[in-house]
Amino acid sequence: MEELIPLVNKLQDAFSSIGQSCHLDLPQIAVVGGQSAGKSSVLENFVGRDFLPRGSGIVTRRPLILQLIFSKTEYAEFLHCKSRKFTDFDEVRQEIEAETDRVTGTNKGISPVPINLRVYSPHVLNLTLIDLPGITKVPVGDQPQDIEFQIREMILQFISRESSLILAVTPTNMDLANSDALKMAKEVDPQGLRTIGVITKLDLMDEGTDARDVLENKLLPLRRGYIGVVNRSQKDIDGRKDIRAALAAERKFFLSHPAYRHMAERMGTPHLQRVLNQQLTNHIRESLPQLRSKLQSQLLSLEKEVEEYKNFRPDDPARKTKALLQMVQQFGVDFEKRIEGSGDQVDTLELSGGARINRIFHERFPFELVKMEFDEKDLRREISYAIKNIHGVRQTGLFTPDLAFEAIVKKQVVKLKEPCLKCVDLVIQELINTVRQCTTKVYLETERIVTTHIREREGKTKDQILLLIDIELSYINTNHEDFIGFANDRIPPDPGGPQVIRRGWLTINNISIMKGGSKEYWFVLTAESLSWYKDEEEKEKKYMLPLDNLKIRDVEKGFMSTKHVFAIFNTEQRNVYKDLRQIELACDSQEDVDSWKASFLRAGVYPEKDQTENEDGAQENTFSMDPQLERQVETIRNLVDSYVGIINKSIRDLMPKTIMHLMINNTKDFIHSELLAFLYSSSDQSSLMEESAEQAQRRDEMLRMYHALKEALGIIGDISTSTVSTPVPPPVDDTWL
């Protein structure tokens, strides 16, 4: 069992030196107490040397992880300067002060970054303690205003761990019921399983008073009880009183004091050290099974990465050539796996490069195409201007001019360039990210060469895509099998029924007045009729209104109403629905009204003629006045819709194919066949395969951690878990806390 505490020390060192990246809660003893309660003195008494910064006010400003190791020779060493052995303990104090100031500055600020100190001595038992800053209430000097909160948070960070034993230090010149240390210990350890009480300054009590009831665990009982100690006074410290003499004086104090004489064997620093050693050893033993499983899972996660480094010889010249070949091969395999997908080592946390590119092709790009769909009003205005401009001075003809159709189609096709080029940019970004992910293990030169190649391909791919669009512009194929052609000036009905132009919720404003005046329905507008249903399931149809002879007019917004309203009426003065001459339809916003009006336009339901007047009093509807022209606009509108749909379909199909061929497959071929040649020609191979400082450090850390874990598991495996341990004392009535 004596191996246990040094084992934890080894682990602590291994993990501290690599930045605590192994999140293991190692068993240790945290020393907690108010400012100037005597925590540091207790630790010095253990070592038998003066080595901690002393004084009044806040002295301990960083956690000190103190590892005491039994050894025949006496010296100390710090983790931050391992090469140096300190035999003069005054120098240890100076180093602690300097290291504290290095992180916290010379003011009274604090930091949670620990200092690791190891003391080898024939006078100590194996122990690992953490000396924490004293609990303080009021900021001193230029300390931050929230110093109490900061210290409290830091202490809780250490004592909240189930693996920490808590040494709660309280001076007797303070009422135990007010002890901050016991109060904080109670917060994190309500059962008292991990808390050991230490009472200091017993020699300073008023004459005629003593702490006998406390030390006998009668007054304020703790499950693990209290141990009393007598530290040197500040005068003794200033007078350089020897610690061994102080320990002898402490022993004499307990033996001669009438209140403590009967329990002198259970008091004093040597007894406290023995108890802590035993408690910590037991505590470690109880934590072992959990610690072992944590270590094993850490080891497993490192195994694969370490495999690459195990036989690494940085100085072997043959190794560099072999490593270069292996690296390029591995890079090619990794890149292909990320792009093409693979069954092994599937990332379950985020989408890989290939999946992201697929999403750009089939979700993002189609969305960009839909997003650029034209404004209905503008499009109809453009069509009417095109028709008028083609006829020029002559009367608008009887026939729909196909030149107007071509002009409008070309204008819409040109708009495709922007989303197409944006798609290429998005794919390039994903490719470069994929290259970066694959080159985390290899060298910057590789990343630079492949990224440069991708950038070169960018120009060729974009040229090809612009060429595709120019090809579409050069010939408008009106004989395409999917094109609706000139057979009808309205979209022909699908074999499965009339084409649905729009679905959505609308409120009928002027029905069921007795029931409250308005009701919301689910509307379906087709090229032939307007139907409304109870809800979007479209099972319960309320009514179907044919579109013949229907027109739209605006309706004033009602008083107090937030809705925007338009109405549908019959031009032949017939009732539209039941006994209503018009039905008023309400939307939440003017945009919705305009959008629905545009949909009705596509179905051939036009606005009433005399709606808008310009400033001269002349009627100027945004839509054509002339029924002949109106009909031609509608015809071309439907033809444009059909043809642009065909082109969008074609572009949606060709874009991914073009990008795959010219960029993605080309980059894969480049990596497999040309990357090695580029690497050889780009620079000196020996310098090329030279590890960067970061890689060397990472390799060292990885191997250090791996060996530390293996060693720890080995030591834990050797320990007999059947070793006798003392059971935890029975519970006590600690309601006083």
Task: Describe, in short, the structure shown.
With 737 residues, the protein is an alpha/beta fold. The protein contains 20 helices and 16 strands. The protein starts with a helix and ends in a 19-residue tail after the last helix.
Describe, in plain words, how this protein is organized in 3D.
This protein is α/β, with parallel strands linked by helices. It has three domains: 30-267, 3-Layer(aba) Sandwich (Rossmann fold), CATH 3.40.50; 333-486 and 626-687, Up-down Bundle (Four Helix Bundle (Hemerythrin (Met), subunit A)); 500-603, Roll (PH-domain like). 47% of the residues lie in helices and 13% in strands. It contains 20 helices and 16 strands. The chain has helices at 4-17, 39-47, 89-104, 147-159, 180-188, 212-215, 234-238, 243-256, 269-309, 317-340, 353-371, 376-391, 402-414, 417-438, 444-474, 590-602, 627-673, 675-682, 685-688, 693-718, and strands at 28-33, 64-70, 75-78, 115-121, 127-131, 164-171, 195-200, 226-228, 500-508, 519-526, 529-533, 541-546, 550-554, 564-570, 582-587, 606-607. The strands form two sheets. An eight-stranded mixed beta sheet has the order 3-4-2-5-1-6-7-8, sandwiched between helices. An eight-stranded mixed beta sheet has the order 12-11-10-9-15-14-13-16. A hairpin with a 2-residue loop joins strand 10 (519-526) and strand 11 (529-533). Its EC number is 3.6.5.5. Keywords: Acetylation, Cell junction, Cell projection, Coated pit, Cytoplasm, Cytoplasmic vesicle, Cytoskeleton, Endocytosis, Endosome, GTP-binding, Hydrolase, Membrane, Microtubule, Motor protein, Nucleotide-binding, Phagocytosis, Phosphoprotein, Synapse, Synaptosome. It catalyses: GTP + H2O = GDP + phosphate + H(+).
